[in-house]
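In the previous chapter we treated chains in isolation. Here, by contrast, the input contains two separate entities that must be folded as one system, with a combined length of 371 residues.
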Amino acid sequence: MKCTRCKATAHVALPSHHSGFCKDCFPLFFTRQVETAIRREKMFTHDERILVALSGGKDSLALMLELHLQGYDVTGLHIDLGIPGSSDKARAKVERFSEKHGLKLEVFEMEKWGLPIPDVKAHVRRPVCAVCGKMKRHHFNRIAVEGGYDALATGHNLDDEVARLFANTLRWDTAYLSDQGPVLPASDGFVRKVKPLFRLSEFETANYAFLKGIEIHSDPCPYATGASFTGHKELWGELEHRSPGQKLQFYQSFLKNGKPAFAAVERETGAELKPCAECGSPTSAGTCSVCRIRAAVRESKAKAEA
Amino acid sequence: MITVNLEPDGTVVELPDTRSVHAVLNKLRLRFTMALVVRNGELLTPDRKLKDGDVLMVRKVTSAG
């Protein structure tokens, strides 16, 4: 197979784009896709400050490097979850990556905040992945708001977005279907959230990370138990194989035809948000779920120690 | 014989009578947009031919969780 652009030997075949690229031309394709996403969705400008959530995986690190190379004012944010044998490795990779490329990095430690994820696993009955995700989103938003950032960027790719949309559709979850998309505008207490990799598949991001020499944290979380999204991704992998381009079409058609209808329903029936009585973060309850979980863990630990 | 180092599993698989990247992925039951295939640091497309003794790294791209 030859490179569509320069006719050298191709290194990456992309059936969904009816093309293939060599190692030098593929990063250009990747850059164009990110530029298109930012421009068409009006995500942010070169005058704005962007906080990038960094887990240590290929997607977040590829996003951080690409935005930096495109000249954006980016700062990385890593949350150290405090999981023994796992969080220290992820953190070390993020720190090495940031140092190597001269990138600004903030690290927030769950343990110092008083709630390492092992405590959540031990003291909360709900699935640990759901609670952990909630905690991370809370802190990403809080740190972005407190730091005066204009937008919070995450490394969600097309496969992540399609798997999530598929799960939301299976449940016909009106609230989630009303605001899923590559941009969530800022509102009271919430920073603007953007997903500049939404046009790129996990395969494309993995190729970019490999070609850029990004050392990634690929060990699965020891607490993950084969989340349903992984199964959905496999199903979609089969569909995409039979009909290349279907993922992007499904997602983009939802944004154009489906989302506005769900947003209209949610405007009529959605819950009103007010500041949390304890931390001030927006919530539909008096005290937000993060503060409630924190209090529940504190209470459970005190009981166990008594 | 083709030697395949599978990532992130960390396992090694030996495949006899396998002459292309496409055949390797078929034997591993992977669609070709589900994994990177690398030989001597070079990414390979599914149509690339292999020779006896080649050592490959096959990295699955779907993140767990």
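The longest strand of chain B covers residues 2-7. Strands of chain B lie at 2-7, 11-15, 35-39, 42-43, 55-60. Compare these points with the single-chain example from earlier in the chapter.
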